[in-house]
Amino acid sequence: MYNIGIIGLGDNGTMHLRGFDRLEETRVAAICDRKTKARERALALLDDPDVVSTSSWKKVCRMKEIDAICVSVPTYLHADVTVLALENGKDVFLEKPICPTMEETDTLILKAFRTDRIVQVGLVYRYCNLYRTLGRMVERGDFGDVMMAFGKEYRDNFPVQWFFETEKSGGALLDKDCHHFDLFSWFIRRKPVKVYAMGGQHVVRGKSVKINCHYAPDRNLMIKRPDIIDHAFVIVQYDNGALANLGLCMYQKEPLHGLEIGINGSNGAHAVARRDVVLNAGGGPLGDIAEVPVDYEKDNCGIGHIGADRQHVEFVECMKTRAMPYANLLLARESMVISLAAERSVREGREVLIEEFDNPKINKLIEKHCMEVYRDTPAPLPPPRPKKEKKKSREKKIIDTFVDLVRLLMGKRPRSEALPFGPEAFEQAAASIADEKRFGKLAKGLEANISFHHSGEPPVFVSIKDGKLAVADKAFDADETKIVFTESGWQGLQTGDSIQKLLVTGQVRAEGKIDHLKPYTEALIELTKALGKV
Description:
Blueprint: E1 2-7, H1 11-22, E2 26-32, H2 36-45, E3 52-54, H3 57-62, E4 68-71, H4 78-87, E5 91-94, H5 102-113, E6 119-121, H6 129-139, E7 146-154, H7 166-169, H8 172-175, H9 178-188, E8 192-200, E9 208-210, E10 222-224, E11 231-238, E12 243-249, E13 258-265, E14 270-274, E15 278-282, E16 290-291, H10 308-321, H11 329-348, E17 352-353, H12 360-368, H13 370-373, H14 394-410, H15 423-433, H16 437-442, E18 447-454, E19 457-465, E20 468-472, E21 481-485, H17 487-495, H18 499-504, E22 508-512, H19 521-531
Parallel strand pairs: 1-2, 1-4, 2-3, 4-5, 5-6, 7-12, 18-21
Antiparallel strand pairs: 7-13, 8-11, 8-17, 9-10, 11-12, 13-14, 14-15, 15-16, 18-19, 19-20, 21-22
């Protein structure tokens, strides 16, 4: 059993807490965050009264019983926490990027390699079935040589203030897109040589601007003096002439365009992955464009980003074998170099050579560990076998309909902190969908009364009629659908637990008239788009 300390309990820290907590070989033995509420929320997710909870990261790093530290604090604090953990003999799981500057990054890398400790970086795409499948296709020659790669990251913005300060985050192209530059290098499999980028501030600029992020803990936050870019186009050239292009926009509003990654091979074959949920390939020797079978669930097990669970599993394997992680410090540095070269190119308006970031000591490490750093892609978990369609049982219909109904009323995205149970939560939902004409059309004829119950709180009564959602001030006279939450069920629903899990464990129960809602499932799903704003 390996004892893990989690330092930083924001969105990523909570994901890592849930990930390590579910593994048989690890125990979350200590949690740390400066915010009391964050620690309380984390403790509620753990069924262990002996977990140490503290605001002191130094205390956690020095705990003798801790075997490894998960560093999920803001980027500008990475170096201090990681170095102290290494000095105290801990293995480290370090969120990306390594540090906000190359100088800090190289200092940390050199210190880490003077120890015998494992350091894995949170380049989570390196552990997901989708991109491991594509990586394997590249390595077996399906695309000849990958000569072009592209990415489109069009989305809303960051969730809290420090991301908007270059000194703390390193900039948007570093924090957000080191993932995507890593994908380019993974598939092109050559050395980057130069970068040219253009970008700036279209929308997120000035002395104060309102936050625009669907998972921001404070939806009313006013960002003070943002100095990072909110859009860019970046071109990367590799030593064989291959080119990669990234488009970044961080001021979209929901519904969002999302992410797209594609490659073009010298033999005419090509592939594109959209929104992390589908991979298509074809052309040249691959023939007609078709979806490539991929398991999109077993690498994350519902705890967060694709690859999220697998990165924890393989971190533990590295702790056992003492092998260099697949997402290692030297590989992560390369993606950072491209990112920081792009940031420099935007600032200085010029082409930036990768050699400007050369460090002779780092080059020696890369030469020494080359075979480990650039090894072949690990096998993805096997894709699911196609299943014969079966007629859904009454119980399955009830669960499916309930899943859609709860998402209708609460929104589909995990929250960092649960809203208080009460009419206000549902009134916000009603306001968000009032103007959804498509839902009104799909839900024409739908009439349903739903009562929501939560331990120790007055029930909330909600009615749906012809696409209109309303909160009632008293119980219904007619039959109704009844949904009952336990305390942990209400919390878990909003902070990311799967609805199926909550149902199976009895943390949420559905009773009464449910079957009559089934014909309107499509309408209920449509509402999730609007409710993500609540």
